[in-house]
Amino acid sequence: MTNRIGIAGISGRMGRLLAEEAAAAAQLTGGTSRSGAAPGDALLYPDIAALAATCDVVIDFTHASTVSAHAAALATSKTPWVLGSTGYSANDQTAIEAAAQTIPIIAAPNFCTGVNLLLILAEKLGATLPPARYDAEILEMHHRQKVDAPSGTALALGRAVAAGRGVNLDEVIASGRHGHTGPRRDGEIGFATLRGGQIIGSHTLSFTAADEQISLTHHALDRRVFATGAVRAALWLQNQKPGLYTMRDFLNL
């Protein structure tokens, strides 16, 4: 069976890497592009619906603003969807869940195997280390062009810690502290965001007590690691039933 992969946003920095990885692992059918350009001799399609009609799965790292429209179009065409966009709204999440009733979707803030292993460790540490003694803080840094903060991966780490502690992240998050904030609350999960240069992605989760500190760090050294993971996930997704999947499902973790 030929695996036909389409790339939404094929002319972007991630789109070009995804196209290269897709062409190496399967058949690249082409993609969509706001700029009207495509890498090499890749075919361009006018919209996501036209692209979906030519392929077995679509990989989409475009932008949060496209999520709801893409969810509707791909559900209509019954085309599996690998979604790597971050920063989308609660309404977008509802659209994703509705589409997952019809098609298999794998949505992840990060398609790197190492980060997904880090998420599992974050949940285990959150469950093991008492929040009244161990302060959880997440520091992330990305390139200066990134538009959402904290990053999707940082928020995923926070949700993993919160899940381990049996709480909702929205109830304990402390992001972007500024001014006279008062003392730190027990159980708070703090976020600090740095932006600069062309840093691909760096995340550190720390648990700090009065007498020790535990830190876990992941540095992405090449954007290709995300493209490779997304293409592997796309090949797996084609054989799944409709539903909303995560990288933990794909990696069988």
TrEMBL record:
Binding annotation for NAD(+): 9-14, 84-86, 108-111
CDD domains (UniProt xref): DHDPR_N (cd02274)
Alphabetical keyword list: Amino-acid biosynthesis, Cytoplasm, Diaminopimelate biosynthesis, Lysine biosynthesis, NAD, NADP, Oxidoreductase
Highest rank taxon of the organism: Bacteria
InterPro entries xrefs: DapB_C, DapB_N, DapB_N_CS, DHDPR_bac, NAD(P)-bd_dom_sf
Subcellular location: Cytoplasm
Record-linked Gene3D superfamilies: Dihydrodipicolinate Reductase, domain 2, NAD(P)-binding Rossmann-like Domain
Active site (record annotation): 142, 146
Catalytic activity of the protein: (S)-2,3,4,5-tetrahydrodipicolinate + NAD(+) + H2O = (2S,4S)-4-hydroxy-2,3,4,5-tetrahydrodipicolinate + NADH + H(+); (S)-2,3,4,5-tetrahydrodipicolinate + NADP(+) + H2O = (2S,4S)-4-hydroxy-2,3,4,5-tetrahydrodipicolinate + NADPH + H(+)
Family, as annotated: Belongs to the DapB family.
Name assigned to this protein: 4-hydroxy-tetrahydrodipicolinate reductase
Source organism of this protein record: Acidocella aquatica
Upper taxonomic lineage: Bacteria, Pseudomonadati, Pseudomonadota, Alphaproteobacteria, Acetobacterales
UniProt gene name: dapB
